[in-house]
């Protein structure tokens, strides 16, 4: 039986990418699209509101002041109502093959993994033989009830998704590895959270 999927994305000053990201979400497979604008100062919010006019599944959450990516991710998680959640960063987009992944979300697993391709053409894979704690990015569609109180980190030198991913893996999820390349990852990109973190480590 097909499950309801909530697509979630935090965004901040993403006017260059936000429409492309939204267009990549297959609307026929979306229970809802929840976007948290984290106090953008460019045209991001205006673009979202314009998009909402022809996309009733889009819900916009607004932070008046920038609270940070972790807070925005968590607000999206708190608002989601679907059986599963799929998190996509605002500067990335889904490839058409995401439909093949979504067709496999049948409720048997807690996490459905797919693969990503970077802007430089490198394939990033999630395999059953990998250390499950590695590669914490947006490789997955997650059962919402399994998430429980797991949330993105909001403080410290480690990106928030690392904290969130660890909390999920600690719960020993049942996982399916589809092997499908379904996500375009805008990396490397100067100014991204990953870029800032890796430069901090140097």
TrEMBL record:
Transmembrane segments: none annotated. CDD domains: Glyco_tranf_GTA_type. It holds the Pfam family Glycos_transf_2. Residues 6-142 form the Glycosyltransferase 2-like domain. InterPro entries: Glyco_trans_2-like, Nucleotide-diphossugar_trans. It comes from the Bacteria. Belongs to the glycosyltransferase 2 family. This is Glycosyltransferase family 2 protein. It comes from Paenibacillus rhizolycopersici.
